[in-house]
Amino acid sequence: MLVPRIQKYAPDAKAILEVGTGRSIVAPIVAANKLPLSHVTLLDQSPRMLEHSRDWGRRGARLLVADATSTGLPRTSFELIVSSLGDPYNDANFWQEVSRLLKSGGVWLFTAPAWEWSETFRGESHRRVAEFVLANGAKAFVRSDIPSVATQSQMIGGVGLYLDEMQELDAAHVLGPLSSKLLIEGKTSPLPLVRGFAVKKR
């Protein structure tokens, strides 16, 4: 979903921001296309997560520890912003920050779990929380905001951006064994699992 669109927009972008980087998906594409890594800023609120992309910093990308909703970066400084599974910070403050950072004509590529999957899989008490089981068996809970398409579209338009493209992926598009999180009553769900958005600024 993201890869072909990063490949499409990255060559014309003089400044690219990846938010919630962890293990970067942007930097390998930029490097493979022989584009300057100096054009890339990799941002994550967690220094530990950003360590997964430390090698890209050594090769020229800028690594930045910052809050996705208040980056401290200059206004209108990026032509391309990418967020993979950005539900931990998917709120009005983040969208406002994206609008502030994007140049006119800029593109924001964003994916998040689909609302339909969230409503089916998560209980009422966990609507805004993602649960992860760590290697030691302990459970970790992370904020996860997954609005409906209608609400997400309103959030986009509310900060002066517009939705250029939307794509849905279901279990049939997942490679390899399926996590139990992707199954409903032990069966593959026909519902969309992930939704991607290409958002632009006029």
Describe the structure.
- There is one protein chain.
- With 202 residues, this protein is α/β, with parallel strands linked by helices.
- It is 25% helix and 31% strand.
- The chain has helices spanning 2-9, 26-32, 47-50, 54-58, 92-101, 115-121, 149-158; strands at residues 16-19, 40-44, 62-65, 78-83, 102-113, 129-133, 139-143, 161-169, 183-184, 187-188, 194-201.
- It is globular.
Key words describing this protein structure:
seven-stranded mixed beta sheet, 202 residues, alpha/beta, 25% helix, globular, 7 helices, 31% strand, two-stranded antiparallel ribbon
Shape estimate: globular
What class, by secondary structure content?
alpha/beta
The tally of beta strands, per DSSP, is 11
N-to-C series of helices and strands: HEHEHHEEHEHEEHEEEE
Measured by DSSP, the beta-strand proportion falls in 25-35%
Concise account of the structure shown:
25% of the residues lie in helices and 31% in strands. Strand 6 and strand 7 (139-143) form a beta hairpin. With 202 residues, the protein is α/β, with parallel strands linked by helices.
Task: Write the topology of this structure.
Elements: H1 2-9, E1 16-19, H2 26-32, E2 40-44, H3 47-50, H4 54-58, E3 62-65, E4 78-83, H5 92-101, E5 102-113, H6 115-121, E6 129-133, E7 139-143, H7 149-158, E8 161-169, E9 183-184, E10 187-188, E11 194-201
Parallel strand pairs: 1-2, 1-4, 2-3, 4-5
Antiparallel strand pairs: 5-11, 6-7, 8-11, 9-10
